[in-house]
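Known limitations

Files may contain more than one protein. Parsers should not assume a single record per file. Below, a two-record file is shown to illustrate correct handling: read the sequence, read the token line, then continue until end of file.
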Amino acid sequence: MASKFRYRYGDTKPVKCRVSSSFPIEEGDIVCLDVATGVVKPAKTYVSTIQAVAAIGAASIVQALVGKHCMGIAMQKVGVQSGEKTFRINPDEGYCMVATGGVFEMDCAANDSIIDTATVIAAGNLEGAMLGIAATTGVVTDSQKVEGVTDAAACIGFVRQQRPDLLQTNQDRTVVIMELSPGAPYGGAGRLGLKGAGTYTNVSGDT
């Protein structure tokens, strides 16, 4: 997908990550840390790299891998896609600024079975639902698309208060407001991994 400004508000906690010219990154891409090379790659490319070594079937396994190794969301475009021509894109060659926090507007599928049902919307319990990379069997087709997940291992963020026009009762929303909570900067389990004993429900008053 082409670069898109997805940031909405909040502290992005940016970090400078190494990149490779072989793996172009678009602004707005969810990026993962390839621990073998030390560079970040778009989620789609990262999963393709893993698939080349060991075939992965279930979408849930793909989502858990992205959840564990997600570094955050790219804040700038790096490199050129096939067919693109440019003379200079990134003044800090070899690196990309990546947001590890903040709130972003991400793409999602209409009629998402977890976050986009009439029951969920009517009940008003959309806030705090877990989000992961959108995946089908062994494949990520879009590094800027998320979907509702139930496995904490796959979680890269949480649904936050939606724009009024996103709260309609018919299920046709194709964007969702997400608070980013990547796995890689927090030891592989997002901010959920920082919690000690007790319970955590991602709302105020957790114990």
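...continuing to the second record:
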Amino acid sequence: MWLMLLERKANEGVRKDTSMPDIMDKLTKTSWMDKPLQNYEYIMPHNTEKVQADFQKLAAIDCIKICGYSNAALDKKDIEVYAKNACEKAIHSTKAISLTNDEDMFQRVAQAAYEETYAATQDLFSKKYHLLRDAKHDLERYGEDSALRRIASDLEQTIKFRRK
């Protein structure tokens, strides 16, 4: 009994300071609005490889969709148009304040990566139709990552061969 009285007296003397929020409450109640916005999604001289990788993936997925569903082979001018459209779409759909700090360099790098990868993917699918069929199936069932994994090694070899 005397132990409960001591605990009660100890708790009465301790007041909770409500003027300052608890640190744990602050950590658990953060939202996306509390985080600072990024100014740029791609900082160009620094993120050149990221731009190339992102647009190579986009080109390969677009090629799977176009070749697999409409069975159409695009010529060089059509691929250039698709590359420009992909850049425009990226500019308008960014979550950052601005897509890049240098739009000219971004468009040169992105379009070159898109055009090279799309042409190589289309060339690969013209030689290995079963790979297109399987990549299309993976895209429908399991998503983009699975489809890209299926064609990655063959696509790398095709790109290396085309560069020679």
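Parsers that stop after the first record will miss the second one. For reference, the second record is described as follows. The beta strands are 40-42, 98-100.
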